[in-house]
C-alpha cells in the first residue's frame, strides 16, 4: 500500500482497553502515550501455534526498528484458562515475549479493531491512524517495507519520536526446570525431560528431582555435537534397539521452535540434526529426503511400529508427519493442513494443533489441543474421534465420551489394560478414557498445566509444566466431574443465507507484486462444519474471492478457510528477487440471519476499503 493509499484510508486507531498490562513495570499504556512511535498491535492467544510463530517472526523487526517501533501484544484469549491472569503471566515468560502485553480477557479491544482471527497484526502510524492490517504468518518482509515507509514519511514531517518504548523486563526466575514439556523413561531407568524454557534436556533420577546430567548449553540455537543448543524442545521418542544401533542415536527430539528433529546419543550426550532444514514449512513438498523437507513446529514424536518410523505431531500445519530413520526420509502421514475435526481416511482428516502422541500396538493415540479432542489413528490409516466436538467447544465434564469435554490437552499416555491418561492441560487435570466402556473420568486435579505423563513402576509421573517440576499426583480413586461446558467467546460473523461472497483481502506491499512466474500466486481452500452448511463453493481454487452459497435450514456453523499468497520484489532488474509466502487459516464461526450481509471479508494483508 502506497503512502497516498494510506492517507485515503485514515482511520483513527481505537483506544487500548483491557484488564491490565504486563511487561510495563506496572504502568498502564494509552495510545496517546505512544504518539510519535510506529505501533504494531499483535492480537494473539497463547494457545495458538500460529501466534507463537508470529512472536518469533517479529523479533528481528523489533530489533531493527528498536528506537521507533513499539510492539503491543493484545492477548485475546480463546480458552477460559487463558483468561486467568497467572496463566497469561506464565505464558509471557514461557515464550520470551519481550514487549508490552495488554490483557484483554473480554475481547474488548479485539472487537473494537474488528479482528476475526488469531493472529492479526495492526500497524498504527505516529499520528494514531491504522495504516495496515495483516492476519496469519509470513508478513515480516511486508511489515519491514511498510514500517520503513511510515518512518521515512513521519521523519520528514517531524512527527516521529525516537527513543525507548514502554517495555520493562520482568525479573528473572530460577528453578531447576523451567516449563518442562515432555518426558520419557529411558532404558537405564532414568527420566529424560525436555526442559523447554531452558532450551535443553535434563536426565533425572526416578525420584523426578535429582539431576544426573544436562544436555544443552541453555542458550537458544541449533548447534550439534557434545555441547548442543536447542530452541524450546518438546517431544522425545526412544527408538527400538535395532534401529538405534544402525542410525547411531537412541532418541529423537522435537526441537520445536527450530522446526527440526534432533538425534540424541544417550551414551555420549551428542546431538545431531536428523530431519528438517531449520526453515518453517508453509507450502511445498512434504515427502523426500529428511534433510531437504521443511517441518513446522514439531510438538511431539512417537515411534509407531505399523508406520515403521517416528510419527511427528506437526502442530504448525495441523498434520502428522512420519520420519523413517533408516531411510532418512520424511513423509506426510495424515492431515490436509485444514484446522478442524474431521474423521475418516488419514489423507482427508482434519487435525487441530496435535500436541501429544502415544502408540499402543496398532493404534496411535493423539490429542488435538485446539479442538480439545482425544483421537486415534488405526493401522489401516483411518482417524476416529473419542472425545471432542470441534474448534469452539470445551470444558471439564466426565461421563460418556460423546458428552465429555476437555480443555486444550497437550499429552496422552497409555495405561495398563489399554486405558488412556490425558494431560488435560488447561483444566489442570489428568483425565482417563476407557475404550472398553467409553467412559471418561478424572484421576487428579490442581496440577499446574500438565503437559505429559509417563508410567514409572505403575505410577503416573506428570510433567507439571507451569509448576516447573515433575509430580506424582495422589489419586486414590477416580472422581466424576460434572463441569461446565464452554464455548469460545469470540463473536460469530453474521452472514445471510443464500449467496455469499467470501473475499480474502491481500495487497502486496510497496515494491512487491504477486508472484505468478510458476503458476497462480494465490490459493484458497474452503470447507465448512457441518459440511452441509455450504451448498456450493467448497473446495480449492486460485482466486481469493469465492462465490459461496449458504444452505437453507442452518442457523450457525464454521467456515474453514485456508488462504495463501506469494509475492516477490517488483523490479525486473533484480536477478534474484526476494519472494515470500503469506498464509493464514481461519475457523470462522458464523451465525446465519435473514438480514445478514452477503459479503464476508477476511483480512490477510492490506486494508479492506469495502468493509
Q: Number of DSSP strands?
A: 45
Q: How much helicity do the residues have?
A: 10-25%
Shape: globular
Could you give a short account of the major beta sheet?
A: 7 strands, mixed
- Spatial extent as radius of gyration: 24 Å
Major sheet: arrangement of strands: 1-7-6-3-4-5-2
**Which runs of at least 5 residues are low in confidence (pLDDT < 50)?**
none
The overall average pLDDT, rounded, is: 93
Strand content: 35-45%
Q: Count of helices?
A: 6
Tell me the distance between the termini. 17 Å
Q: Which structural class best describes the helix and strand composition?
A: mainly beta
Topology diagram in text:
Blueprint: H1 3-8, E1 11-12, E2 20-22, E3 38-44, H2 49-64, E4 69-75, H3 85-94, E5 100-103, H4 108-112, E6 120-124, E7 129-135, H5 140-157, E8 180-185, E9 191-195, E10 200-204, E11 211-215, E12 233-238, H6 241-247, E13 251-255, E14 260-264, E15 271-275, E16 288-289, E17 298-304, E18 309-314, E19 319-324, E20 329-334, E21 344-345, E22 354-360, E23 363-368, E24 373-378, E25 382-387, E26 393-397, E27 399-400, E28 411-414, E29 420-424, E30 429-434, E31 439-444, E32 450-456, E33 459-464, E34 469-471, E35 482-487, E36 493-495, E37 498-506, E38 512-514, E39 522-529, E40 534-536, E41 539-541, E42 545-550, E43 556-569, E44 579-592, E45 599-605
Parallel strand pairs: 3-4, 4-5, 36-44, 37-45
Antiparallel strand pairs: 1-7, 2-5, 3-6, 6-7, 8-9, 9-10, 10-11, 12-13, 13-14, 14-15, 16-20, 17-18, 18-19, 19-20, 21-25, 22-23, 23-24, 24-25, 26-35, 27-31, 28-29, 29-30, 30-31, 32-33, 33-34, 37-42, 38-43, 39-41, 39-43, 40-42, 43-44
